[in-house]
Amino acid sequence: MQNLLAELLGTMLLIVLGDGVVANVVLTGTKGEKSGWIVITTGWGIAVAMAAYAVGRISGAHLNPALTLALATIGSFAWADVPGYIAAQLVGAFLGAIIVWLAYRPHFAVTDDKDGKLAVFATGPAIRNTSRLTVRPSRRSRRSWMRSSGWRAKIPCSSG
Could you say which of 12, 113, 137, 154 has the lowest number of CB atoms within 10 Å? Predict the structure, then answer.
């Protein structure tokens, strides 16, 4: 139980510090508004280090379900402990996000940029390119596309 509480608190600390620095940079009216990506990356680095130092001796400071699953996969962590660790990490992350939202609530209210608000809790591409996200056409539509575009298959001929 001590390990699970440590994972919960460590993950919560990670999110409070990490998302907190993002909120400070992207939300309107904060002291760190528009201070840039270097502040965010430095803040996240410190967040990871502080969370790991805080709970590393107790739980191993996985702080992330991906690390827990990776360690279990290579045999360095018991599969029986995986569900508890992941549950503690998810609860800790959720609590951390609530703390950030409460702490920056007035800034969320005055920030008009929807992408900036979302960026506090999630990442996305800087340049959205949805043209490459296409659904694979059916065989019939592929044939009609080939005909309409003038595409011709080049079939090698053997000469001998």
Answer: 154
Please tell me which of 29-38, 84-93, 124-133, 138-147 the model is most confident about, judged by mean pLDDT.
84-93
Q: What pLDDT, on the 0 to 100 scale, is given for residue 125?
A: 76
pTM: 0.77
Q: What is the pLDDT of residues 59-87, one digit of tens each?
A: 999 999 999 999 999 999 999 999 999 99
What is the spatial distance between Cα 63 and Cα 76, in angstroms, rounded to a whole number? 16
Contacts of 140 (CB under 8 A, 6+ apart): none
Q: Where are the domains of the chain?
A: 2-119
CATH number for the region 2-119 comes to 1.20.1080.10
Could you tell me which residues come within 8 angstroms of residue 106 by beta carbon, excluding any fewer than 6 positions away?
29
Which tokens in the block code for residue 102?
């409460």
Query: Helices 2-26 and 37-59: crossing angle, nearest 10°?
Result: 170
Longest dimension (CA), the chain: 80
Mapped onto helix, strand or coil, the DSSP state of residue 152 is: coil
CB-CB contact of 104 with 25 (8 Å): no
Identify the pLDDT of residue 6: 97
CA distance 64 to 88: 10
